[in-house]
Amino acid sequence: MARDLKKLISEMTLEEKAGLCSGADFWHTKAVERLGIPAVMVSDGPHGLRKQDQEGDHLGINDSIVAVCFPAACATASSFDTEMIYHMGDVIGQECQAEDLSIVLGPAVNIKRSPLCGRNFEYFSEDPYLAGKMAAAYINGVQKWDVGTSIKHFAANNQEHRRMSVSDEVSERTLREIYFPAFEEAVKNAQPKTVMCSYNKINGTYSSDNHWLLTKVLREDWGFKGYVMTDWGAVDDRVQGIRAGLDLEMPSSNGENDRKSVEAVQSGALDEKLVDQAVERILEVLFSYADHRHPEAVFDRDADHEKSVEIETQCAVLLQNNGVLPLKTAEKVAYIGEFADKPRYQGGGSSHINSSKVTSALSSAQKKGRAVTYVKGFPADADEENEEEIRKAVAAAVSADVAVIFAGLPDSFESEGYDRDNMKLPQCQNRLIEEVLKVQPNTVVVLHNGSPVECPWADDAAAILEMYLGGQGVGEATDQLLYGEVNPSGHLAESFPLHLEDNPSYLFFPGDGHTARYAEGVFVGYRYYDTKKMPVRWAFGHGLSYTTFAYDNLKVSAEQMTDDSALTVSVDVTNTGAVKGKEVVQLYISDLNGTAERPVKELKDFAKTELEPGEKKTVYLRICARDLSYYEEHLGDWYAPSGKYEILVGSASDDIRCRSQISFTTKKLLPMKVAGDTTIGDLMADPRTAETVQKMMKEAEKNSSLNQPSSEAGQDAVSDKMMQEMMAGMPLKSLVSFGMMNLEQMEGLITMLNQKL
After folding, report:
1. Taking 60 as the threshold, does the pLDDT of residue 707 lie above it?
2. What's the order of all strands across the beta sheet hosting 515-517?
3. How many percent of the chain have pLDDT more than 90?
4. Which DSSP symbol is given to 354?
5. Residues ≥6 apart with Cβ < 8 Å to 386
6. Above 60 in pLDDT, residue 59?
7. pTM
8. Is residue 572 among the annotated active site residues?
9. DSSP for 424-451, written as a single string
10. What is the pLDDT of residue 590?
11. Exposed, middle or buried by CB within 10 Å (0-12, 13-18, 19+), for 714?
12. Are 493 and 127 in contact (CB under 8 A)?
């Protein structure tokens, strides 16, 4: 039904309006019963419901309802499958309706700046394009059910260390290119009902107080229409927050901040219209749920468990394989490591799910009658070496055809609230893996982790399968993948560096406790490794299959692009193996114009396609001018210089199969103000000033002391290249020093050139 929200707000008291802008408790908004405004409930997410029926807390200490734990974002992003994550959102949206939850708090789209961030398992990727596409698809799936999402944490929440007070010192270009685009994509193409602002400061201003962030960027630049809520306890100055565009404070502040808002309005320090605006945004979202209930919605935990299993099979990444996988039913296989029996399938903290059931790879294999034996080897929850267990593991490996070691990070190694100290697996696991590899060359390692780990034994392993934190069905999914019932099709959404020290943020993460300098700028993840030509263990986008794929016949719909045009890129992909499989086709763009501080390549589109053996399909991808651009701070906009760009299509950032070049012409001109230190080269490169400066230089060179020397020795000392470079880098003021013009002439030239700009 249509509601007149402005009329409803006019009937509210100032105290009721201020009260509606904060929570009633940990999980509910306030009701105004006399006006028919109900309280609604929100729940942590995003990979399952953490609805707490009794006393609420934000870190998962108290029990929540029994729910289904789907794969975490570290896994789902590796699917590179927007259709799949849309369906996962669809399932979660229906679960929310069945459980009377109006908002699910997610997805989390913060960029994986460092492998050490304790909450990386909840975040999609080091790449903003991939993160944005996955987030938008998930949001559209959830909100199909008139349930809201809360995309988080806006913005630059890339560490847990002092996350509630640290100031992230980061350039606008870096924010716009790396840390904002996932939010921007989701807002423009999915319109999440809410955005959750982060705890941290950005360049000295708390996110909750930041008008530029919450109003200028989020609403004016991107067109966000919902309401902004805080992360739990993220309010700094409640009155300034309302001015900045912060609508809902969560949880309750026991009336303290409500009172401050009322007093500020009464004293004239806060315009009541801003309070009304916040209330209207909250009510718009509240009633979009309350007025659109779905009685047909059911939470079928068993059915959703099966969907969780299916989703995880599409997320796991086969990192390497010498042919030992898939396993054969007749082979004797030794399962080693307690993760085989007690898998780690989710992270710790506010997203922790009280799972309806958890299946292990061991129980799944036993249920199917596979020839599997089991040795604990090491514990799943600690770093404890046991010589007797190691001896048993080695003996089991010797007597088996294949050893499968289930390794990973214990719960205590990565969690919300703190960052990791290193990228290592527990020493007990590395030791056991090394001992088993000495006696069994057919050793497979299955990983359960939320972020990259160092794998010093990787070159000796026969195969490595990355399951990430795969949800409560991870064991069944692992079994299906190991035995080839499903063909692995995941590709890494993050780089695995060889060593922690290789990471571009290593010298700056996590900062001194007061500030965190993002000194690596836009060179995050593969943007750094590929530009520096630094080897990694496994590259962004990498993922193997039990079949092989060939790429050919790359075509571009046009050879020229302009600011307003777009291109279609097509490539033929053929399954050249004997097994049905899915391939992730990735398109990267490379700027060939020598533009300063640009990565050598950036992901700009992708598609996942399924192929039968021998089948060929044409995959279509798309690029526009924004895809060629970087954020030019002086222009305050996206900008791509005219020139050449390369289109790169392949299976990973380090596995490019096809290339093509296009030309681009822009009408955008960078702002310029000519002064004495403006160089000749800059003026010659700008079409507005080039002709004037070229004529001036020809005349001025006649009287210059920089004319080519007449002697043979002088000619040897001064090359044409040297003269060209010196002139290009020479500021206008130096023309006076070298006798090419006098001071009055230079000042007149500067005036004339500025008139042309």
Report:
1. no
2. 205-206, 201-202, 167-169, 515-517
3. 86
4. E
5. 378, 428
6. no
7. 0.95
8. no
9. PPPHHHHHHHHHHHHH-SSEEEEEE-SS
10. 98
11. exposed
12. yes
**Spatial distance between the Cα atoms of 678 and 659, rounded to a whole number of angstroms:** 38
Catalytic residue among 231, 236, 479, 654: 231
Predicted confidence band of residue 566 (pLDDT cuts 50, 70, 90): very high
From the number of C-beta atoms within 10 Å of its C-beta (0-12, 13-18, 19+), residue 383 rates as middle
The amino acid that residue 429 corresponds to is Q
Residue 746's pLDDT band (boundaries 50, 70, 90)?
confident
Q: How confident is the model at residue 749 (pLDDT cuts 50, 70, 90)?
A: confident
Q: Would you say residue 684 has pLDDT above 90?
A: no
The residue with tokens 């908004």 is 29
Q: Please report where in the chains the tokens 């070049």 appear, as a residue.
A: 661
Report the distance separating Cα 713 and Cα 133, nearest Å. 63
Contacts of 252 (CB under 8 A, 6+ apart): 22, 23, 24, 25, 26
> CB–CB of 236/194 below 8 Å?
no
Q: Compute the distance between CA of residue 417 and CA of residue 163 in angstroms, rounded to an integer.
A: 8
- DSSP H or E stretch at residue 408: strand 402-408
Write the CB contacts of 719 (distance below 8 Å, at least 6 apart in sequence): none
| Predicted local distance difference test score (pLDDT) of residue 736 | 87
Q: How many Cα neighbours within 13 Å face the side chain of 525? A: 29
- Looking up tokens 């958890």 gives 358
Question: What average pLDDT does this structure show over 207-229?
Answer: 98
Average pLDDT, the chain: 94
Residue type, 135: A
Report CA torsion sign: 482, 484, 486, 489: positive
pLDDT band, residue 693 (cuts 50/70/90):
confident
- Measured distance CA(543)–CA(537) in Å, rounded: 12
Do residues 580 and 612 touch, judged by C-beta distance below 8 A? yes
* DSSP-based three-state secondary structure for 23: strand
The closest of 8, 513, 22, 44 to 241, measured between CA atoms, is: 22
Q: What is the pLDDT of residue 455?
A: 98
Provide the total of helices (H) and of strands (E) in the chain, helices listed first: 24, 27
Contact 440, 279 (CB under 8 A): no
182 CB-near residues (< 8 Å, 6+ apart): 109, 111, 124, 128, 131, 132, 135
What mean pLDDT comes out for the span 155-181? 97
Min mean pLDDT across 64-73, 286-295, 615-624, 718-727 is at 718-727
Positive or negative: CA dihedral 191, 192, 196, 201 = negative
Which positions ≥6 away from 740 have C-beta within 8 Å? Answer: 700, 701, 703, 704, 706
